[in-house]
Amino acid sequence: MAFQRSSLLLRKAISSSRTAAALYSPYSSLLYSSSNYSDWTRSYSSSESSDTEGTTVTAAGYHVNNAPSYMRGAVFWEPNKPLTFEDFQMPRPKANEILIKTKACGVCHSDLHVIKGELPFASPCVVGHEITGEVVEHGKLTDSKIIQSLPIGSQVIGAFIMPCGSCFYCSKGQDDLCESFFEYNRAKGTLYDGETRLFLRNGGKPVYMYSMGGLAEYCVVPAHGLAVLPNTLPYTESAILGCAVFTAYGAMAHAAQVRPGDAIAVIGVGGVGSSCLQIARAFGASEIIAVDVQDEKLQKAKLFGATHAINALKEDAVTKIKEITGGRGVDIAVEALGRAQTFSQCVQSVRDGGKAVMIGLTLSGAKGEVDINHLVRRQIKVIGSYGGRARQDLPKLIKLAERGIFNLEAAVSRKCKFEDVGEAYKDLDKGNIVGRAVVEIM
Ligand SMILES: [Zn+2]
Ligand SMILES: [Zn+2]
After folding, report:
1. Could you tell me the distance, in angstroms and rounded to a whole number, from the CA of residue 221 to the centre of ligand 2?
2. Fewer CB within 10 Å, N side or C side of the chain?
3. pLDDT at residue 316 tops 80
4. 269 alpha carbon to ligand 1 midpoint, in Å?
5. Could you tell me the distance, in angstroms and rounded to a whole number, from the CA of residue 159 to the centre of ligand 2?
6. What is the per-residue pLDDT for 53?
7. Which ligand has the shortest distance to the CA of 178?
8. What is the pTM of this model?
9. Ligand 2 centre distance from Cα of residue 319 (Å)
10. C-alpha–C-alpha distance, residues 269 and 28, integer Å
11. CATH number of 246-384, picked from 2.40.50.1070, 3.40.50.720, 2.160.20.60, 3.30.70.20
């Protein structure tokens, strides 16, 4: 019964997406247009070739007779080559997984690290890991409690760390350390049975998934990585709850354990750093110091709760932070850039007994320096933090956003169309995105 209903709704969802699909052309267009990539004109899937004898696939025939059906996704092939749009077989969820019609996906530095080859990842793959969407199908044999809590048609938000719900760490509530997520998704680009859900339409070549592979019209997400998005919150802006805000919340709630009255410095106030400012404000921090090298970002930081702004090109950040805090340093400093120099600055900015929280990813294998005696004698805590705990944190983040305590509208500085996603990553790379860009998919 439930299965029949979900299949029906899936068909409905697919047919309603035809209109959107009809707006796109051509299927395998290049996402980057830079001359550096001008030699990159080949389409890996043969979606431009004939579907049936001599008939080129047209937009109107994108989803053929409702089933079998296809979708479009943006594929990363190899470092520093443009993403290409490819046709995929409609992905199928397995037990306790959910097929989502993707509405929006955020543009994050982690994807950029993969695209630039700085973080090794299985390829070809679909990047994008900060999504909102609509539930269109449950995998067969999915737990009835999951079906009840995330029924067909629900609006949902997906966290980039998708906990399996049953490993050693998940059973302790530390979803952010989920063994299945790291062993399968981060290490191999698959879901937790060791297989991807993405296959090219022509030839069936498997394509790996960075988290859920959010830069596609549909994606499969393990159910524990999802939470219901109330209809008072918009699809586009709410996408950032799944990585930028999720990461900021994890850093402030679990790693730093911020208390009201704490003095906090955030080094690097882009998408994640500026979310840290807002979460610090929500938790009652007294001094909130934003550090960056761009005046535009520092200006905007004040909207997010920063009480002080330091341009590290014009002033010495550590000296200035000490000055603001009566010579002691902050209770908590957060590094949101992922550079060796700012790693050291972060450690030097905290008071005795303070916490230096690192959330910026960097080149694979990069090292940071710490003054050992200072760390020992002054009881400095250097803490790594990656994402948040989906099952416990997502519902709290959603409440903060719903009540306006976290301002989503201000945090999203750019909205772009799916076909412009390549441009968005290029602008992110140049530091031209003040805040967060979100791709609207359907
Ligand atoms: Zn991210
Ligand atoms: Zn787990």
Report:
1. 14
2. N
3. yes
4. 14
5. 14
6. 34
7. 2
8. 0.85
9. 42
10. 35
11. 3.40.50.720
